[in-house]
Amino acid sequence: MIKILDQIGRYFLMLKEVFNKPTKWVVMRPLIFKEVDDLIIGSMAIVAFISFFIGGVVAIQTALNLTNPLIPKSLIAFATRQSVILEFSPTFISIIMAGRAGSYITSSIGTMRVTEQIDALEVMGVNSLNYLVFPKIIALILYPFVIAISICLGIMGGWLAAVYGGFVGSDEFIRGIQTDFHPFHILYAFIKTFIFGFVLATIPSFHGFYMKGGALEVGKASTTSFVWTCVVIILIDYLLTQLLLS
Amino acid sequence: MDLRGNHTDRLSFNPVTIKLMIEVKDIEKSFGDSKVLKGISTTFESGKTNLIIGRSGSGKTVMLKTLLGIHTPDAGTISFDGRIYSDLDKDEKRALRTEIGMVFQGSALFDSMTVEQNVAFPLRMFTNKRSKEIMDRVNETLDRVNLKDANKKFPNEISGGMQKRVAIARAIVNNPKYLFCDEPNSGLDPETSIVIDKLVQEITKEYNITTVINTHDMNSVLQIGEKIVFLKNGLKEWEGNNEEILETRNKSIVEFVYSSDLFKKVREALLADEQEHHAHDNDKKA
User: Fold this and answer.
1) What kind of fold does domain B7-250 have according to CATH?
2) Inter-axis angle of helices B115-126 and B160-172, nearest 10
3) Nearest residue on chain B to A120, judged by CA atoms?
4) A55, A71, A124, A126: which has the fewest C-beta neighbours closer than 10 Å?
5) If you average pLDDT over every residue of chain B, what do you get?
6) Chain A interface, best mutation among B102, B118, B123, by max A CB count within 10 A
7) Is A212 touching B (CB cutoff 8 A)?
8) Residue A44 domain flag
């Protein structure tokens, strides 16, 4: 328990240092673009693939469970929309991102630690935490855009699966999507993803930056960071749902 | 062209009248119950290649890391040209670190950057030079370390010796006042080691840098050891230069210097030669 509290304390001290003594903008700018390319653009293909098929699966599962003829078929679209906006896109994709982007962040920073590149930065007088972590945080500010695309593709996947699977007509599906729509749910999804983006940038960075050992430990740190990122995402998901939707 | 062109601008005093140096006074460092440095005092002067030598576990890496500020000493002081490191605030420490060049044992080049990006890094980070000025300076420094046609290559595409040259170029590109090298010859063949040693010594003299090298390579000790600090079990056992080290009767250092078969045989040959010479002289006198 003391070890966990110690880790939490070090995590917040790390955050303080990340925002302390910023790196020159001319140096920081290309780093931010590089991180946007690696973390956001680089993740788009897997996010698009998963979102599209998850939307389809949700639609089919809902359709197969709607056996009562009194329940309108438009509920398939309604359930797909709600599932995708409220949970599947923000949370499920964040878990995927913890594996893809989180592991990349931990292993890249961890390798820099092992090969003394972080020591080299420190000895030069560079605030290594700001140099390494800050661009990732800024890049992941764009994470809600990824989720916006994920939501669109998820619903599109649901529409394709439901309509071309012969479960519901296109008009009825579109009517179902529009039924009882609360724009706040979109805001709720974006608030969640904004916070998840911060978690995705900082927890893997923490595990990479403070790792000790060699190549094997870089792998272990990646695994640990994935587990902790998932745990924190799920806990924050629960808290935000209680706070914003209850 | 003098790579230290702007060196005097940074100093608040005239470097000609005051000798630049690093002064270490009674530094102690422990890790848990293990006392690694036990009150070491010495000075490292500018324009000289200062060597810290000793067996593995003697405390030389901890000593170097303490000098660099990576470890904080439990007791004692380290001063850089009169500036006591522990008395500096965080920003002053960072500013001092920009005056330090470091060559790491494994080179520690940024593997996502090309050779020229690695060398340009301190300039981009700490100066307001334009891109063309930076590239001119990078090319000039790479020429100085005899490294051409590797600008666009990544560190994993060049040999260990070339990586060391790039690391040296990166360390000196921003006119450091202090250059630290952690085992610069490790992993290099003897011929390349000599080239690297000579390069470090030439640069030290040319730019009047205070150079501190951590090594256990006896070739380096004999070739460039203008000041040698020998550590044993965390204590300064002996200090001198590369001529004195061959004549010393200090048992620990004799054991260290002549621990390899090659040096043992050289020493035996020298002693036999000396005895023969004495015998010849005595015969003459008789």
Assistant:
1) Rossmann fold (3.40.50)
2) 20
3) B108
4) A71
5) 84
6) B102
7) no
8) yes
- Would you state the pLDDT for residue B6? 43
Alpha-carbon gap, residue B111 to A113, rounded angstroms: 12
> Tokens in use for B117?
């990006």
A30 within a domain of the structure (yes/no): yes
Calculate Rg over the CA atoms of chain A.
Answer: 21
Residue A122: domain span? 19-245
Asked whether the beta carbons of residue A116 and residue B100 sit closer than 8 angstroms, the reply is no
pLDDT-derived band at A54 (thresholds 50, 70, 90) equals very high
Q: How many domains does chain A have?
A: 1
ipTM over 0.90: no
Structural domain contains residue A13? no
- B28 φ, ψ to 5°? -130, 145
A148 inside domain: yes
Two structure tokens written together for B284 = 């003459």
Number of residues assigned to chain B:
286
Q: Minimal Cα distance from B68: which residue of A?
A: A123
Which of A122, A124, A218 to mutate: most B Cβ within 10 Å?
A: A124
Is B145 near chain A, with CB under 8 Å? Answer: no
Query: Is residue A161 within 8 Å of A55, Cβ to Cβ?
Result: yes
Helices (H) and strands (E) in chain A, counts: 12, 0
> What is the per-residue pLDDT across B61-116, written as a single tens digit (0 to 9) for each?
899 989 988 888 999 999 998 899 888 888 888 888 888 999 888 889 999 999 99
Q: Which of A59-73, A158-172, B109-123 has the lowest mean pLDDT?
A: A59-73
For chain B, the domains span 7-250, 251-286
Backbone Cα Rg of chain B: 21
Tell me which chain B residue has its CA closest to the CA of residue A118: B108
A116 touches chain B (CB under 8 A): yes
Q: Is A125 within 8 Å of chain B by CB?
A: yes
Q: CB-hemisphere CA count at 13 Å for A170?
A: 3
Separation of alpha carbons A51 and A53, rounded Å:
6
